[in-house]
Amino acid sequence: MRCKLLLLLPIACGLCAHATDSVKPGTPSHCHFERTGDEYVGSCGPLFDQNPVMTLKAASSITTGIWREDVQPISIWSGAMTDQGYPDAPLELEIYRDGWGILRTEYGWFGVTQFRSSPETGFLLDASDEVKANSLDRRILVRAEAILSTEEVWNRSDNRKCPQDATSWSLYCAMERATMEVTGGFQHRRPALELVRAIVDEHCAGRHYHHWLMDYNNDRTTTLADVQSLFREALARMDDR
Predict the structure, then answer these.
(1) Could you list the residue range(s) of the whole structural domain that residue 187 is in?
(2) 147 and which of 18, 125, 174, 203 could share a cystine (Cβ 3.0–4.6 Å)?
(3) What is the pLDDT of residues 179-233, one digit of tens each?
(4) What's the rounded Cα separation, in Å, for the pair 77 and 26?
(5) Bridge partners, 33 (sequence order)
(6) What digits encode the pLDDT tens for the residues 106-139?
C-alpha cells in the first residue's frame, strides 16, 4: 500500500513557518576560528550529534546557487566540516550587511549572526532551526513539477546521479535540474528540497526510507500523481505560513 497523501493543511512545523532573514531564536552556538595560512580553522562545539572541526577561507562566489535575488552577500566563504565516519562535508557561508548570513551544510542551511572577521573570525550559529523556503524555492517547486509533467519523462529508477543530457528525471533529479535553472547552482539541502523531504517523511512514516526523495520515487506503489502532489502541497504550505 502506497503512502497516503493527506489533505493540504497548514502546519506549525519550523520548515513551514514564515520566512525571515534569520531563523527563530534558539540557543546559539559560539563558533570561533583561528587563522592557519590562507584559511581559518575552528569549531562551533557539539553540532549534528558530533563535534566537527570546520575550515573556511574567502571565496569569490557561491557555487551552490543564489539564496535570494533581492539581497547580495558582502563576503563569501567556502570550506569543509569533519563528518565522523564519512568524507569531510563541504561548507559555504554567505555574509550580509550587519553581520548576519547563511551557513550551508550537509545537514541543512542555518542562520548565523554577529559575524566578525577581525581581529578574530567567528559568529553565532542557530542549528535549532533551518532557513525557510523563499520566492526562489517557490520557483524551483513550480519548475520541478513542470519537468515531471508526463510518465514518459519520469525516471522510476533513481540513483541520485543526474546527467546534464538526461531525457528523463526522478523526483530528486527534477528538483536538482530546477534548482540549477532557477539559482545557477545546486545543494541538496536547499529549503525547497528540505520541505519536500519533510512532506514525504510525514506521509510515509514507518517506511524507513534511507534517502527520502530517491526511495519514495523508486517505491513501486508511488505514482506520478503522488510525486506531483508533493510539489503542490509544498507550495500550499508556503502559502499557509
Answers:
(1) 134-239
(2) 174
(3) 999 999 999 999 999 999 999 999 998 888 999 999 999 999 999 999 999 999 9
(4) 24
(5) 42, 121
(6) 999 999 999 998 778 999 999 988 999 999 999 9
* CA distances to 14, 16, 152, 195 from 132, in Å: 8, 7, 33, 9
Do 192 and 173 have their domain in common?
A: yes
Cell numbers standing for residue 174 = 527534477
Domain end (from 110, 129, 148): 129
Residue 183 identity:
T
- The residue from 81, 104, 129 where one domain ends is 129
How far are the Cα atoms of 45, 77, 81, 122, 145 from residue 32, in angstroms, in the given order?
A: 9, 15, 14, 4, 42
The beta-strand segments (E) located in the chain are: 29-36, 39-43, 53-58, 75-83, 86-95, 101-105, 108-116, 121-130
Instruction: Check: CB of residue 113 under 8 Å from CB of residue 23.
Output: no
User: Collapsing DSSP states into helix, strand and coil, what is residue 203?
Assistant: helix
Do 76 and 150 lie in one domain? The reply is: no
97 and 160 assigned to the same domain: no
CB 41 within 8 A of CB 33: yes
